[in-house]
Known about the structure:
transferase, five-stranded parallel sheet, 10 helices, alpha/beta, disordered N terminus, about 350 residues, Polysaccharide pyruvyl transferase family protein, Rossmann fold
Amino acid sequence: MAFCPRWRHGAGAATGRRPLPLPGDCRLSGGEPTCPVHGRQRILVTGWFSFLDGEATAGDVLALRRVEEVLRGAGLAHDVVWSPGFRADALHLEDVDPAAYSHLVFVCGPAHGPQVEALHRRFAHCARIAVGVSVVDPGSPAVTGFDRVLARDAAGREPTPDLAARAPGLPARPVVGVVLTHGQHEYGRQRRHEEVAAAVTRWLAGKDCARLELETRLDAHDWRLCATPAQLEAVLGRLDLVVTDRLHGMVLALRAGTPALAVDPVAGGAKVTAQARACGWPALVSAERLEPGLLDHWWQWCLTGGRNAARRIGTGFRAADAAPDGADELVAALGLRPAVQGPDGGHPVPRRGR
Length: 354
């Protein structure tokens, strides 16, 4: 027979001995503690993703998914508590009635700190278990307050795989490069760069995709930026889509065979519009028509038929019969006589005047 874990904080707590059963104690024929108020089992699942000043990392959330998978498989009723800073529409700690729960589970991260200790005080009547945590100080109240600690790593113990490793599989999501500019002041009053960037990023925030902020500017000293065009092209070629208001954001994406959703940030259209026409690329939105519906249309096209179109254009750039560009006319424009190659194929020999 098991009794409500509230016993620890009553007469038996000082001696560590379980007290004699009293009338009204929580009992469950299966030997598990039940909620002292509601007479039933229910688990509150918490973690660093639950604290107002905590954080939700991808690893923490995947660890949570693994725990939820196990609890659902066992048919155990549970609720998850989220930080209002991450999930405003979810259950929050401040809204929880502790008496509604028989167990508390703390998932992932370090079992350390005042936030964890506060859970022990507030849910003192619950059986408390930490799972998939790192034990930094085994003597800290944050650790000793748990009835069981199923650690992923602790001194003197063999480590176990992190819970995130065996979390349920996830659906694929598009990887999207974002190349925006806030400059180009040469366009004066026609500039709509700030408005365009704000609208595009606000729209992107609602897209279920992996966003990767990129910069076409090269820097040999800043590790966050590419140092060569080849490095940037390597990134662009691995993306599903590029969203950009830069001419080279669009052209380099197409050169890599990646579709680009281009927005011209200049009122009336400027070099982005002109270059889209020169490349034969249709996925272009003007600053005047920048609205979610039109962006959604070209987003969907870029991720479907636009993929083949981008590859064709990228291949065409390097074809023998590629459309002429300014470099094709440069030699004639210079008006200089070509140098004569040396007899051994070496340095050119200047032509002598007649």
